[in-house]
Each structure stands twice: as structure tokens, then as C-alpha cells.
């Protein structure tokens, strides 16, 4: 034993500083190459090579099971391909459930002193109003000519004054709309003005319907009158919903959906009336009708929304959430119904990853904007503002969401150009949301960043450490040699202590025979 120790000590004493420099330099080079390869593999395939080899080859040898294989790949690929059609990445949509500017947004400003709407959002609304409520033949009717100028006014008081001026000439539907949206301070007052607008709008619609085939000018006028009529009925239905007459609101929204399907004007689809209908049906807890509406609109060929995806997830979660327990599920595995609910939640979270933090009240809500960006923070706020109560009403639904929503990000490929169930998450979403949301008092939610795998961080640290050792050994060879000898002596001290104890216990003859073996 003492001969072995003396040989080891002699070997360490004969080592020169050049050996330590070469050793640490070689270690640094190897760990650097591993780091470069790991980084390249992660950037290309979205996973660590060492982790993948460990999971794919070492875990089965140790008795583990790889449960990460994706389920139902045909559906996923089909839906992803269909959603990769020419979609404008940052197309802004009008919020189907937008609040009333006078009765709700302005009241918030009076109470808090904060402006809930941004200039960009209000400018988009002004453009929408000009598209919905004006046409080239407005100069034929004096009141419509006044309103055409009113919609272009930036000053709210100037718009309201112009609407009153138009009403002095005749019953003008668009003038009543402007007053109901901006001057009315209560929902009941807005409803009264919308009813007057409905009476005037129906008369204009009937007259233009008879003349629509007499030329392009009359056809454009009829299209405008159709937009006005649909807008008024939709806002009347929303007034009924806000005033507690939910069944009446559902009936009006159903009639509007039928009317929208009968007419082939592209602007009608921008209203997304089915989302108003879904919210009202959820308030009535009429889940069978909610499922029927989803079956009609949750189609591959139609654009998705947070309302559609999360409502579908809520219905599937409702079937299992009251008895769901993460501890029990980890022991026995997920049942078929639970798996369907989890997959629906993953699908919804991939479409809009910002919603769960608002539903779980991890982030405070603000008033929703008048326009939203699908898959963005603005859409998440608009959805959670109206639908949080419906999730709370279903027992255990928020608990199931809390337990499963973060697992979505392990399924999404990285980089994000690949997507999973939907087209890739748009890069420009954060920038557009900052234009739509009041960033003065609201922190815009951004897409969760995918963390680097442990082995990339480990190899980076190892490479840096060995490179530092190589540099110190080159600059201070004698000092590093003393340090290396002290380190090795400390490292082998427990082993030497054990060997001494063994020698003191065992007979010398037996120990001599063992060393010879």
C-alpha cells in the first residue's frame, strides 16, 4: 500500500506545468465543441441532443417508458396545414364584445382619471365607422352627408354636435348610433337611442332593398343600410344582455346569425356575432346549445379565436373537472375524457398563451379595447373580461386549467416557425398589442420564452471553467502546480484514511495476499 502511495506521489512530482496547461486546454476544447454542437442541435430541432439520447436510449434500458409521443398526428397536421393559408400575421379585428364608449369607457375615465383606449384603437374605430356607415351616395341625403363628415371628426363633441344637426333634418339612423355610442351615459339611455335608430334604419333598408338592382350606386347604398341594420340589432342585443334580459338577447343574436348567413356581404362576417351568442348561452348555462354553435363555427376552414378555442376547452373540462385530482391522475393515469379535456386546454393555450394568467387571476384585468389582435394579449383581456365568470361557475375547471396549461409549451416546437396545431405564433404580436393597450398602467403580456436545456448551460459552464483554468495555468504555472497537488491530496485524503483503517483491521498476511492478487 505504501509503495502505491509513493509511486503516485513520485508521478505527481514529475508532472510539469506544461502538462497541466495541455490537460486544461484539451478539456476546454472538448467542452467547447460539445457546447457548439448542443447549441446548433437545439436551434435546429428544439431539444437537447444529450437529453434526447438519454430519454430515447438510456431510459428504456433502466426500465422507464417514453410517454412523449404525440397523439392523433393526422388531426394535428391537417389543422396546422389548413391554418397556414395566407393569414395576415398582425391583422386587427374589431372586438365583438366591445363596450359602449359613453356608458362604460367614459364612466371609467370619470372615476379613475385614466384613458382606457389608445389613440391607435380609437383611430381604427373611426375607420370602421366610415366603412360601415358611409357610402358614395351619401351626398343624395343631406343628413347622411353631415354624418359622413361627423365620422371623420377627431373631437368627440364635434361628432355629437354633427349628429344632433343631422337629426334636425330627418330621422337618421347613423346619427342615433353615434349618440348611443358616445353621448349616452347609461345602458338604458343607449338602448333607447338604438331603438330609435332601428326604426329609422329599417325604413332606409326597405327603401334601398327595392332599388338595389337599379345600379351600382343603389347597390352600395343597400349594402351600407344592411351594415347599419345589423350593427343596430347587435348592439340592441348587447344592451339586453347587459340589462339582464339574456334570453331576449339570445333570440336577437340567433336571428342575426341567420340573417348573416342569408346575406353575402363580406363586412357582416367582421361582426362575429356568434361570439356574442356563445357568451350569452354560457350565461344561461345552456351548454348543449353552446356545443351546437361550436360545431358550426369551430371549423378548420374558419378563422379561430380565443372564444372558440377556450369555450371548447371549457365544455370538455366541465365533464371531468369536478372529480379531477392531479395526485390521483398521476397514480392511475388520465382517463379518455380527462385526456380529451387536457388536449383541448393545450390546443387553446397554443392558440393564445396569454389567457390562462387572466383566468387564474395571476394578472390583473383592465377594460378590453375596441379592437383585438388574435392570439395576442388584447384578445386574452377581451376574452377573460367576459368569460372569467363562466369558468368560475364550472366546478374544478380553473383547477384543471391550473394543473395542465403550462404543459402546452413542452409540446410546441422550437424555434416557433414550426407551430404544432396552429400556424406559428406571430412575432409582431407584442408590438401591435402595445399600440392597442394602454401601456401606461398595463404591462403587456409577451409570449413565454423557452428556457435553455440544462446540458447546454452545464457545458457552457464547464467550457468557461476549463478555459479559465488553462489561462491561469499558463500565466502562473508554479502556483497552479501547488494548487493542483493540494487539490489532489485533499481529494485522495478520504481514500487514504479508509485504506489506513482497513490495514489496521485486517491481518498483514491477508492484506499482502490481497495486494498480490
TrEMBL record:
<dbReference type="Pfam" id="PF04184">
    <property type="entry name" value="ST7"/>
</dbReference>
<keyword id="KW-1133">Transmembrane helix</keyword>
<feature type="compositionally biased region" description="Polar residues">
    <location>
        <begin position="78"/>
        <end position="87"/>
    </location>
</feature>
<protein>
    <recommendedName>
        <fullName>Suppressor of tumorigenicity 7 protein</fullName>
    </recommendedName>
</protein>
<keyword id="KW-0472">Membrane</keyword>
<dbReference type="InterPro" id="IPR007311">
    <property type="entry name" value="ST7"/>
</dbReference>
<feature type="region of interest" description="Disordered">
    <location>
        <begin position="66"/>
        <end position="87"/>
    </location>
</feature>
<comment type="similarity">
    <text>Belongs to the ST7 family.</text>
</comment>
<dbReference type="GO" id="GO:0016020">
    <property type="term" value="C:membrane"/>
</dbReference>
<feature type="transmembrane region" description="Helical">
    <location>
        <begin position="20"/>
        <end position="42"/>
    </location>
</feature>
<feature type="compositionally biased region" description="Low complexity">
    <location>
        <begin position="67"/>
        <end position="77"/>
    </location>
</feature>
<feature type="transmembrane region" description="Helical">
    <location>
        <begin position="452"/>
        <end position="473"/>
    </location>
</feature>
<keyword id="KW-0812">Transmembrane</keyword>
Amino acid at each position: 500500500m505504501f509503495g502505491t502511495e509513493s509511486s503516485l506521489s513520485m508521478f505527481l512530482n514529475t508532472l510539469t506545468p506544461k502538462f497541466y496547461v495541455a490537460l486544461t486546454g484539451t478539456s476546454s476544447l472538448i467542452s467547447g465543441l460539445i457546447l457548439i454542437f448542443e447549441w446548433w442541435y437545439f436551434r435546429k430541432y428544439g431539444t437537447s441532443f444529450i437529453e434526447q439520447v438519454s430519454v430515447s436510449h438510456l431510459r428504456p434500458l433502466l426500465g422507464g417508458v417514453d410517454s412523449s409521443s404525440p397523439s392523433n398526428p393526422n388531426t394535428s397536421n391537417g389543422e396546422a396545414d389548413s391554418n397556414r393559408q395566407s393569414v395576415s400575421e398582425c391583422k386587427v379585428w374589431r372586438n365583438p364584445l366591445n363596450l359602449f364608449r359613453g356608458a362604460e369607457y367614459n364612466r371609467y375615465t370619470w372615476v379613475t382619471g385614466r384613458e382606457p383606449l389608445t389613440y391607435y384603437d380609437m383611430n381604427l374605430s373611426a375607420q370602421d365607422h366610415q366603412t360601415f356607415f358611409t357610402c358614395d351616395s351619401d351626398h343624395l341625403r343631406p343628413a347622411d352627408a353631415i354624418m359622413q363628415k361627423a365620422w371623420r371628426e377627431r373631437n368627440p363633441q364635434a361628432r355629437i354636435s354633427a349628429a344632433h344637426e343631422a337629426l334636425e333634418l330627418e330621422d337618421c339612423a347613423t346619427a342615433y348610433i353615434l349618440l348611443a355610442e358616445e353621448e349616452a351615459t347609461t345602458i338604458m339611455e343607449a338602448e333607447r337611442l338604438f331603438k330609435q335608430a332601428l326604426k329609422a334604419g329599417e325604413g332606409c333598408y326597405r327603401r334601398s332593398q327595392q332599388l338595389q338592382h337599379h345600379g351600382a350606386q343603389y347597390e352600395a347604398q343597400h349594402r351600407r343600410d344592411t351594415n347599419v341594420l345589423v350593427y343596430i340589432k347587435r348592439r340592441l342585443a348587447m344592451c339586453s344582455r347587459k340589462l339582464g334580459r339574456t334570453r331576449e338577447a339570445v333570440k336577437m343574436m340567433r336571428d342575426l346569425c341567420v340573417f348573416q348567413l342569408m346575406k353575402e356581404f363580406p363586412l357582416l362576417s367582421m361582426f362575429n356575432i356568434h361570439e356574442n351568442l356563445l357568451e350569452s348561452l354560457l350565461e344561461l348555462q345552456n351548454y348543449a346549445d353552446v356545443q351546437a354553435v361550436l360545431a358550426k363555427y369551430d371549423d378548420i376552414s374558419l378563422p379561430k379565436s380565443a372564444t372558440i378555442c377556450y369555450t371548447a376547452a371549457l365544455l370538455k373540462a366541465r365533464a371531468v373537472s369536478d372529480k379531477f385530482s392531479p395526485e390521483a391522475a398521476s397514480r392511475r393515469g388520465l382517463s379518455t375524457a380527462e385526456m380529451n379535456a387536457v388536449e383541448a386546454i393545450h390546443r387553446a393555450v397554443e392558440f393564445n398563451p396569454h389567457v390562462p394568467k387572466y383566468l387564474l387571476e395571476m394578472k390583473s384585468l383592465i377594460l378590453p379595447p375596441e379592437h383585438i389582435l388574435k392570439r395576442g394579449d388584447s384578445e386574452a383581456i377581451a376574452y377573460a373580461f367576459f368569460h372569467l365568470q363562466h369558468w368560475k361557475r364550472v366546478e374544478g375547471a380553473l383547477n384543471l386549467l391550473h394543473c395542465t396549461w403550462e404543459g402546452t409549451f413542452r409540446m410546441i416546437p422550437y424555434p416557433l416557425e414550426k407551430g404544432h396545431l396552429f400556424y406559428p405564433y406571430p412575432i409582431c404580436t407584442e408590438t401591435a398589442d402595445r399600440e392597442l393597450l394602454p401601456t401606461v398602467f398595463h404591462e403587456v403580456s409577451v409570449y413565454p420564452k423557452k428556457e435553455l436545456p440544462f446540458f447546454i448551460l452545464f457545458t457552457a459552464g464547464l467550457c468557461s471553467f476549463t478555459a479559465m483554468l488553462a489561462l491561469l495555468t499558463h500565466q502562473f504555472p508554479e502556483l497552479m502546480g501547488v494548487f493542483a497537488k493540494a487539490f489532489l491530496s485533499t481529494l485522495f485524503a478520504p481514500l487514504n484514511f479508509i485504506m489506513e483503517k482497513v490495514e489496521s483491521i485486517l491481518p498483514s498476511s491477508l492484506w499482502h495476499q490481497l495486494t498480490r492478487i
